[in-house]
Amino acid sequence: MPLNSVITNAGAQVALASFNKTAEELTSTQKRISTGYRVADAKDDGAAFAVAERVRGEVAANTSANEQLGGAKGLIDVTAASLQNVSSTLQKLQSVAVKLADGTISSEQRTQYQSQAKELTNNIQSFIKDATYNGTNVLNDPMTLANKVVRNGAGETYTFSGYKAATNIFNIVSGANAWTRGDASAALTKTGAVSKAITNTLSQMNNFGSYSNFVDSQINYNKAKMDAQQSGIGALVDADLAKESAKLQSLQIRQQLGTQALSIANQAPQTLLSLFR
């Protein structure tokens, strides 16, 4: 190919190829800066993008699981609060039962203590009935004895047990307003009504405390796992903006030089005109 040709300009072709390459790199760098991602879509790096999308799905699933665990925690904590109030009321009932067991009190005093016992048992019944969260009561609804909540993004569940508190706590002491001295004395024995109701209540307080601790631990673990997953995604697809900023300035300068080089190469055939003067 002749070096001096007005048909084929080799210098312009080289300059144009270099200019186009710089423009492509500049577009890619601007995309990384504007999106913040080194891999914004499958065109940038199909394999890395596929891995990132899968992990993003796992993060979304664990986020959803934590939302469900939050609801379960609310239910468990409301139930624990109810049992705490029941326990405090049973302690008061125990004190009243001690007075009812005293054979020296007058009939009028006994009536007053029986009235107090009635109010206390009514309170116990109310605490049990009011232990509702989002329409669910695991102390007063026999259909909620086995409760399953999704605990992670894989759909695995955690099961905690409800309790028939109306049967196993309230019903045991519900007749306290009619207790005679003998009834009250029997209720205070190790196997008596008050002692049994207190034991049942404390047992369930321990159970629901354990449930609450498990849910808290699972929520915290899911959060830690999601943080690690997010960090992994970032290492895989995030752009190094300091590096990209420096590269952008370099490419902008190269683009300006490429424009000048292409302009000079395009003017080369003009010099051939001087040969025909």
SSE layout and pairing:
Elements: H1 10-35, H2 46-100, H3 107-129, E1 146-150, E2 157-161, H4 165-173, H5 181-187, H6 193-237, H7 241-267
Antiparallel strand pairs: 1-2
Tell me what you see in this structure.
One of its GO terms (cellular component) is extracellular region. Keywords: Bacterial flagellum, Cell projection, Cilium, Flagellum, Secreted. Belongs to the bacterial flagellin family. This protein is mainly alpha-helical. It has two domains: about 10-35 and about 240-275; about 45-235, f41 fragment of flagellin, N-terminal domain (Up-down Bundle). Helix content is about 70%, strand content about 5%. Strands 1-2 form a two-stranded antiparallel ribbon. It is rod-shaped, with a radius of gyration of 39 Å. The two termini are about 25 Å apart. About 25% of the residues are buried.
Short synopsis of the structure:
The chain is mainly α.
Number of domains: 2
CATH architecture of the largest domain: Up-down Bundle
CATH superfamily of the largest domain: f41 fragment of flagellin, N-terminal domain
Q: How do the SSEs run, as a string of H and E?
A: HHHEEHHHH
Low-confidence segments, ≥5 residues, pLDDT <50? Answer: none
Indicate the overall shape.
Answer: rod-shaped
